[in-house]
Amino acid sequence: MSPKSVFLIRDRGQIRGLSPRKRGVAPQIPAFAATNLKDEGYMIFSELFSRTHGLKVAIVGRPNVGKSTLFNRLCGKRMAIVHDIPGVTRDRKEAFGQLGDIPLHLIDTAGLEDKSKDPLMEGMKAQVLMALQEADVILFIIDGREGVTPLDESFADLLRKAEKPVLLLANKCEGKVGAQGIAEAWGLGFGEPFATSAEHGQGLDSLYEALIPYYQGPRREEAEEEENTIEAPLQLAIVGRPNVGKSTLLNQLIGHERVLTGPEAGVTRDSISTEWAYKNQPIRLIDTAGLRKRAKVVEKLEWLSTSESRSAIQYAQVVILVLDATQPLEKQDLHIASQVIDEGRCLVLALNKWDLITNKEELLKDLQERLTTSLPQVKGIPMVPISALKGKNKEKLLDQVLALYAIWNQRISTARLNRWLEGIVAHHPPPLVAGRRIKVKYLTQIKTRPPTFVLFSSKATELPEAYVKYLVNGLRQSFGLEGVPIRFSVKSSKNPYVDG
Predict the structure, then answer these.
(1) pLDDT-based confidence at residue 494 (cuts at 50, 70, 90)
(2) What is d(CA 204, CA 69) in angstroms, rounded to the nearest whole number?
(3) Per-residue pLDDT for 27 more than 70?
């Protein structure tokens, strides 16, 4: 299990259990120890609970003041890309965390510049304004070492118009560094600035105290009861090569401009998730950076972006691989598809820019043949022609996603499996090995997501791979498992009398 970053619950206005110098620092505690931690007085909020009851906090400021570092600190893990280059963050990124016993719904935003030549700046500003509108509290960050700059003052004017509570944080104030910047920060008119170091976790105890009046959520005793009523969303990642229309597709699906788009490749850097629902099914859509061949990735920033994309595939349940229909199924497309299948995730192919294709039937037939030969491990992968720009076939695409997700979660009883196994083995028995036939004993499904089966037989290591494929293909056809990865292993039944 992955570790969760947790804080201790509030006790007499302090964060209990931490020395004054270490208050607010998030100790890494394994998730499996959560039950014992609660018995000792800890409160750990799940992501589901924070999504419903979390205090919505927007983190804003000019470029390179430590917004994403603080975002990661409050999340308890690295959710946003952090780099020395200013302007790494473009879209607003949302995640969930907690500070003490306050669940947080966090929004990381782009740093704005007055005289930027970036063609995306207007879109980035719109994203920041939307974050300000949605937030319950705004954390305004300045660089305490550099002091207040003209750009900070412009940002302050923007925040006054938002008419939301603003907490001013002077970041990068390790030790006594930043005293001059803190003094200057008083002039911005947002009250006492908080000296913090997002990198080292300093000053979070003061931030916690400042956030207490704004959180009016449920009491600690109510948390577990509330969490049991919340349905987890379907994790749906949108991946593909650069500039194939991934962000355009996400915006089209949810019906508004959630992420930035542009004609140039590489607009998306972070993996951006957004909560949404289709036919009463909660869905978390995840837009990702374009994946190029590893050999072509030389800059650290692109390497971080592609790492985020691969991580999104690992944690997704269904993956939409967007293909450019004018250049479909290139080697990199097949490499991404293989990665999705190896992770055991559902895969749906979206043929984007379909409105530009003239020989549609011929192209579809050719692509189906190439899929059969290039990805033989999964048969029946759905392929949906779409136009992300015009919204063509978006409902058909989502229907395929839900249908595949249902198959991925399907469980087949052991009795049904073994009735089927008896018939298929009678039709085509296993081959002879050293003059003796391998005995196929029984088959069971040990888990779902993806469907995973174990076959028990004599001489398991000698059962030919071709016969295993025969059984897997029979499973697909007989139980409607087309289009999803199947994990199938063969084990020998242990004889209890061998050692006796």
Answers:
(1) low
(2) 13
(3) no
Sheet holding 440-447, edge to edge: 440-447, 452-457, 487-492
pLDDT of residue 229: 57
Q: If you compute the radius of gyration of the chain from its CA atoms, what whole number of angstroms results?
A: 27
Architecture of the 3-227 domain: 3-Layer(aba) Sandwich (3.40)
pLDDT tens column, 220-271: 545 455 555 567 889 999 999 999 999 999 999 999 888 988 877 778 888 8
Contact between 416 and 443 (Cβ < 8 Å): no
Which letter, b or e, does each residue of 40-52 get, where b requires 16 or more Cβ atoms within 10 Å of its Cβ? eebbbbbbbbbbb
Task: Band the pLDDT of 115: cuts 50, 70, 90.
Answer: low
Query: Could you tell me where the beta strands, DSSP code E, fall in 202-361?
Result: 234-240, 272-278, 281-287, 318-324, 346-352
Contact 351, 383 (CB under 8 A): yes
CA separation for the pair 439, 461 (Å, rounded):
12
DSSP result, 427-453 = HSPPPEETTEEPPEEEEEEEETTTTEE
3-state secondary structure of 86: coil
Task: Look over the chain and give the mean of its residue pLDDT values, rounded to a whole number.
Answer: 85
Instruction: Write down the pLDDT at residue 117.
Output: 62
The fraction of the chain above a pLDDT of 70, given in percent, is: 86
Predicted pLDDT of residue 222: 56
b (16+ CB within 10 A) / e for 259-272: bbbeeeeebbbbbb
Q: Give the whole-angstrom CA distance, residue 464 versus residue 214.
A: 65
Q: Which two tokens stand for residue 185?
A: 């920060």
**β-strands 281-287, 234-240 pairing:** parallel
Q: Which residue has the tokens 């059969």?
A: 372
Question: What are the residues whose beta carbons fall under 8 Å from the beta carbon of 294, sequence distance 6 or more?
Answer: none
* Cα 423 to chain centroid, rounded: 43
State pTM to two decimals. Answer: 0.83
For the chain, domain boundaries: 3-227, 234-408, 414-492
Residue 17's pLDDT band (cuts 50, 70, 90): very low
Q: Amino acid identity, residue 5? A: S
Cβ atoms 165, 174 nearer than 8 A: no
Tokens linked to 139: 């954390």
Asked if domains 234-408 and 414-492 share a fold, the reply is no
Name the residue with tokens 């004609």. 263
List the structure tokens of 472. Answer: 């897997």
CATH superfamily placement of domain 414-492: K homology (KH) domain (3.30.300.20)
Q: Are 318 and 401 in contact (CB under 8 A)?
A: yes
> Judging by DSSP bridges, how do beta strands 318-324 and 272-278 pair with one another?
unpaired
CATH second-level architecture of 234-408?
A: 3-Layer(aba) Sandwich (3.40)
Which pair of structure tokens corresponds to residue 305? 């972006």
What's CA 208's distance to the chain center, in Å? 27
Most confident of 46-50, 80-84, 302-306, 424-428: 424-428
